[in-house]
Amino acid sequence: MQHVRGRLIVAVAGFGGLLLAALVAAPLLGTTSISLMRVFDRSIPFADNADAQIFFVARLPRILAAALVGGSLALAGAIFQALLRNPLATPDTLGVSSGAALGAMLAISFHFDFAIAGLSSVSLSSLAGSIGALAIVYMLATARRRGLSTTVLLLAGVTMTAFFSALTLAVQYMTDFADTFRTVRWLMGALDVGSFTPILAALPLIAIACVMVATLPRPLDLISLGADAAAARGVDVQRAERLALISASLVTGAAVSISGPVAFVGLVVPHIVRLVVGSDHRLVLPASALFGATFLIGCDLIARTLFAPIELPVGIVTAVIGGPFFLWLLVRRT
Amino acid sequence: MKRLLLILAAACIALGAAADPVPRRVVSLIPAATEMIFAMGAGSRLIAVSSYDKFPPEATKLPKVGALLDPDTERILSMRPDLVIVYGTQTELRRGLDRAGIAYYTYEHRAMPDIMATIRSIGARIGYAAQANALAASMEQALAGVRTAVAGKRRPRTMLVFERDRSSLQNIYASGGYGFLADLLDTAGGDNVFSDLKQQSVQASTEMILAGRPDVIIELRYGQSAKDSNPSRDLRAWDALGSVPAVKAKQIHVLVGDEFVVPGPRIVDAARRLAQILHPEGEAR
Questions:
Q1: What pLDDT score does A47 carry?
Q2: DSSP string, B150-219
Q3: Which of A158, B61, B88, B148 has its CA 20 to 30 A from that of A259?
Q4: Strands B83-87 and B26-28, sheet pairing
Q5: Model's pTM, two decimal places?
Q6: If 0-12 CB within 10 Å is exposed, 13-18 middle and 19+ buried, where does residue B43 land?
Q7: Strand pairing report for B216-221 and B157-163
Q8: Which of B205, B213, B227 has the CB atom closest to A58's CB atom?
Q9: Are B210 and A32 a contacting pair at CB < 8 A?
Q10: Measured in whole angstroms, how far is the alpha carbon of residue A189 from the centre of its chain?
Q11: Which residues in B lie closer than 8 A to residue A304 (C-beta atoms)?
Q12: What residues contact A317, with CB distance under 8 A and at least 6 apart?
């Protein structure tokens, strides 16, 4: 026990330090050079201070969004991989972000014209879509008293994803040409949120999920060995599985409502983290969240500076950087 | 005698038609091309248009045969056209037309001079060369008139936005330094903030806008996006970028109309409306 606590401190300190460094460095870097002196110069009114606006309006919300989305997706990926006992599981395996995508497509294509508290109809609809998908997943998971086997859950997830994707394509096919482009662009993920509002709206959901996740590491360790083994060790498997399902789906939905689906983070980050800290979920879950945040801040920094002033969609960078890096790690380990 | 003459005349016409290579049954899958053909007075040559065609009103009465991504090849073939105006990327459709032995004219959106060039070449192709030349020349003259009217005036740094999420600053797309929108802005007497980016569209991040500091922001609304129940609430999203001169001076304008996105004869109106916003003293009629 003491041993784990020590490793936890080291892991959190290490990955936390990385995240902190990213959070401090990323707002200072960008396509335009800004002077920190001017950013914090109180004698210039904020409305006139272009440097401060670039720092506080363009960069800070974007970096916090990257941290929140990256952390959420990596955490969800780690949970799904353990819950489904499948290394290929991602935050989208159960169809939550496909549901979110359908919501966003509908909002874009049919020009939903409403906004609540500064949240655009696209964010709100994608959130509604992911909650809808979560509700279906939950109903499936609780349909039978004994809960669902992982295989059934996986199949249900694949089916849901295919179903939502088909509806999404149908909506895309019927829309105006200009809107088709917007829907495709949404699917590539984007972090330039332009204000703190979408982040603040997603925070409560992520906070609730994190409280649930706090109870999960031990059960997940045992469940990843097999449900029967876990039950024999006194784990309330059904309850733990439900909590895992809901929390991972909630963070996924919240993340997708901020940025759209960002590919690859949820798959690759937990694996990278496991290569470093081992498979104990008391370490894997916090380390995945921290490293996922760092990873996405880094990818977004590349996305917005590499071909400056043109920006790349961040989802392209995550896959292009994350893919080869992960392959290299795999080959090096074996 | 009179009867003989009539028969002779009819025979001549029939012979002429048989030898005449000029297409008389034209299908246009491009709204801009449809507008050009109507504007040169050749609307009667059109037998079908794309599903996006809304102008002129006569065009809406013609059968619709799909559009850029979903041309209804079977329907097009069944109408027995002798010329189909297609977009450059519609390779599948062109292959189908090739097999059926139907001629086509390949069109692509480019810069503003290409609009007049396209009018002239379509006109020559369908036997309306004189009318097409006259139309193109009058457009060139009108555009030159707009240019002259704004010449010497201070050219405000302008961002021409043609796409943005409602009520937020996400997914903003603006005109880059190439293409007919960029030329339109240039003609109307504005300097494009993104003129260095030689592409038709630029996804503008908040940082690019803050760094670009446009004096004027013009949002184009067309098609579905023209219907907006609460434009003032929607425009408040810009307030977050208070250091941008356009936001500070409340120089954010909305221009509604399909003429801004269809590079056809109506660009003259588009240029005039744009000039009126950029130079409101009334000199650019």
A1: 80
A2: HTTS---EEEEEEE--TTSS-S-EEE-SSSHHHHHHHHTT-EETTTTS-SSEEE--HHHHHHH--SEEEE
A3: A158
A4: parallel
A5: 0.84
A6: middle
A7: parallel
A8: B205
A9: yes
A10: 11
A11: 205, 207
A12: A299, A300, A302, A303, A306
Residue B9 pLDDT class (50, 70, 90 cuts): low
Closest CA of chain A from B174, distance in Å: 12
Q: Do B211 and A54 touch (CB under 8 A)?
A: yes
Q: Does B142 touch chain A (CB under 8 A)?
A: no
What is the DSSP track for B116-161? HHHHHHHHHHTT-HHHHHHHHHHHHHHHHHHHHHHTTS---EEEEE
Report the chain A residue with the minimal C-alpha distance to residue B202.
Answer: A310
Measure the CA–CA gap between A310 and A72, rounded to whole angstroms.
27
Q: ipTM of this model?
A: 0.82
Contact B208 A190 (CB under 8 A): no
Closest-approach residue (CA) in chain A for B234: A115
Q: How far apart are CA B279 and CA B285, in angstroms?
A: 10
Q: Are B163 and B171 in contact (CB under 8 A)?
A: yes
Q: Three-state DSSP class for A115?
A: coil
Q: Report phi then psi at B84, rounded to 5.
A: -120, 130
pLDDT digits (tens, 9 = 90+) for A67-124: 999 999 999 999 999 988 888 888 888 888 899 989 988 888 887 777 676 677 888 8
Which tokens go with B265?
């004869």
From residue B227, give the alpha-carbon distance in Å to each of A115, A212, B220, B282. Answer: 16, 44, 12, 28
| Contact (CB, 8 A) for B195 and B177 | yes
Angstroms from A265 CA to nearest CA on chain B: 22
